[in-house]
Queue: 3 jobs
Job 1
Amino acid sequence: MIQNPLYILTVLCGLIFISEWLTKNTFLKHLSGPLLVIILGALLANLGLIPSASNASPVYDSIFNYVAPASIFYLLLGVNLKELKKAGLPMLLAFVLGAAGTTLGVLVSLNLIDYQEVFGKNYAAIAGMMTGTYTGGSANFNAVALHYDVVREGAIYTGIVVADNIVTALWMLVTLSLPALMARWKPHKSLQMNLRGDIDQYTEREHVGPLRLGLMLFIGLTAMLLSNQLAELSGVPSVLVLTTIALVLAQLKVIQQIPGAKLLGMFAVYLFLVVVGAFCELTALVQVGEHAVSILLFTVVIVLVHGLFLILMGLVLRTDWCVIAIASQANIGGASTALALAKSFKRNDLLLPAILAGSLGTGLGTYLGFLVAGLV
């Protein structure tokens, strides 16, 4: 039953409903929906009620391959390119500083463990993998791992993947809380874009009939299909192509007048995040035996150094803490989680910078990963 695709989708959709209901009707309203859905996904996965990282379902692969990009596309349809000049440079600078913090974190963490004992001959490749994944997401991790054939290293590879999933999920919780915590200690001026509309208009109040919903789904699926084809021909990451298509369409009034994009986009984000939570599997680290603690320490230190470095730069530059948090999430989790974070902060003005930072990480992370692997 647990591997039944229909069962999995039923539970995932149920968790989205439960998280939204709890954040609207109970004391958990102080938590955000994205935060709670990650927690619920992790809880059920570790209780064995839905598949986790070690026995992942093809349903999860489909969500990562199709639903996550769809969330990017639909949410970007509501973005005005005119806002890029207002928030683009601060986000880009924060993202670059975050990537520098990741590289520093990899070098520091290597010196805290006996990396040759833990990782053997693969230590340089693993350093590159972690640099790549914490610059722009898991696509970079897999690219470096496949090149160095680390994927055949069984337990070590599994342990690193699990540690990565755990830390990525936990860091999402940290970045969700970061702006509120830092604002109490060192408040910085927020970048106010004076955007039109209300962030909550993706809810049931958005009138979507079968005609318009069918049209919006057709547009989204066509854009994803086209982006994949163009990516194969050009070698450009498909997420960058999809982003470009979405931004071009978003400037057309005829597209802006079709309702449903915000609703589809936010639901897709929730579906993606609940799977991120499901991949936060604690028991799988047992497979690497005595090295489990070292692998987890290695991963945690990378992200902590990244975070502390970026926070320090934020203090020096007096950057909007929401920008710092989103840029960090673009590094650690990639475009989809950065986008989810911007939505959680109710910052429509930062949607475009978030997705562009994540896309930049997808494009540059692999190169930086190979560079660090070569240098190490």
Job 2
Amino acid sequence: MIKGVPNLLTYTRMNQATTEMRARMQDASLEAVTGKHADIPAATGAKIGEANLIKKGLNDIDSRIGLYGLVSARVETMVTSLGNVRGAFDDIGARALTMVDSGDSTGMRTIASEAEVALESVFSMLNVSQGNRTLFSGDAAQTAPLSSAQDLLADVEAIIMSSSDPAVVNAALDTYFNDPAGGFQTNIYQGGANNASSLVLGNGTRVDYTVKADDQAIKDTIRGLAVLAANKSLPMAQPGTDYRTVVTAGIDSLEVGRAGILDMEARLGVTLGAIEKSVDNDSHERTVLSAVYQTLVGRDQYEAATELKQLETQLETSYLLTSRLSALNLTNFIR
């Protein structure tokens, strides 16, 4: 009698079983590491739609939290830069007021030099960037917001020297800094006309964290420093009332700018607080959703590891038997 066919079928079936066990071992290995079923549709059955919605919710939260981190870093850098801007001119305004009231031309020249250095520093701090994005340029995020401090200073010196009438000089400075067609807006500010994109928090609140280098408080600060710095080129041997009027207006502008920058810092601080609260809320929501998702797709890791060990033993046995069968020749199968 021919008895080889059943033996040959057994050999073929064992090869197939070995292949299936290897595939299952791969799944069990993945489940032991991730704690999730390798075949989620099979594990969830009719709840696959619910599982997918929860997964999408988790991905959305992860995207928001990543964006929160990016915006928080930008806002923190902006707050630091604004604080450094205030620190750059520190008590220059108060000391300048003392000097001009006392008629101390030598002291005013010293103040002028300090104001020029501070002006350069302010320009540098406002041109700060993070990655490839400038922070004080509004929607022109690839462009440095301010051009040259020396160009601005030359313009202000020319305005101050153009008239001995303080009313005329201050009116010209108003036009230069505040008129949309003035020199500051057309030659110095290089940023965008609109705000940068706002941030939408998890609760739907839209947060605008834009501060631009042409905001009024910053222009007031730059104007005050430029007026003080321009004193290095003014005839100050015998400063008179007209001279003091122009310088005092510059000092006033500087202090108004200081107050405005403090307000900007405070608003950005509120923004940081709102972002931090949203991070906490989203993190809590993520914890809850993760727990629900795990109940749908989760696999006990200890159980998966136990199954993996059993499969390894079975696979070793299968390899041994298959090896023995493969060593049989045709004579073995048909005797």
Job 3
Amino acid sequence: TERNMANFTTMNGFLLVGFSAKPELEILCASLFLVLYLVALTGNILIITVTSMDDSLYSPMYFFLKHLSFLDICYISVTVPRSICNSFMHTRSISLWECILQCWAFTLCGSAEVAMLTVMSYDRYVAICLPLRYEIIMNANTCIHGILAVWISGVISGVMHTSATFSIHFCGANIIHQFFCEVPQLLKLACSNEYVSELGVTGFLSLLAFLCFLSIGFSYTHIFSTVLRIPSAKGRAKAFSTCLPHLAVVTLFLSTGAFEFLKPHSDSPTALDFLLTLFYAVLPPTLNPMIYSLRNKAMKAALKKVVKRRRAYFFC
């Protein structure tokens, strides 16, 4: 019964709400998630493989793209496989420590993703606005320091968010109206006003994310201003084809994530909650490989070379 379930979660963890109360629809949604997960894994692994094997892609842009793909694999693997297993096994329970670990890893990857997209926008800014100084500014040390900053900021954000969230006491049935341990949904279970400290952390991290957004906006304002002054139509098209996919990913990820975290949450789950979570937690890691590979001629050429090598190896 609901009361027994509530007692169980109070002692041992939480209950995650599935996609649907109907078993057939639940399996259908889980199958869709499985397809998206496999597409994300395949695409990101391909990008990591191609950028590692092809000498023509040894540049800061593809160095950051390779690390973005690795980050995307981690990001989507934190939540989706567990939700797929829950749906197929018809179980909803998640232990307290699993929830803590999931919350920390998801916050880490989400914060690192914002930082990575900011670093990548700076790389594009230097490449297009300061081309003569590109190799000097974006040298090996700059790239390594950029990646270190991305992961360190992610770890710090994850620790801060998770510590603040799980320092509060939870009341009621401990039922999370989401397919993973999402912070806004956890805060709805807080006793009285104990979530005030977590709101402070959320506000601080939101400010950092907003500064990243401003930095990305600054970079692209200068990029588009420079691109529009290029006399060659072909040159303008090439620059836009490199930058617009990145801007599309940034807009999708930041806008849906910000709206989901900042909008008022109702006591009962809505289709909008699940849809927004899908847009910022599942789609970016799935779409990134498609956007970057389909719109990038160098990536497509390198991918063809890798495929030819593999075919020659197997036939030999």
